Amino acid sequence: LVMGLCDRAHAGLFIALWGITQALAQGIGTISAGLARDVIGRMSGVVANGYIAVYLSALTLIAVASAILLILSWRGQLRAEQVRSPWSSLDQVNADQIIF
Question: Does the model's pTM come out above 0.90?
Answer without folding.
Answer: no
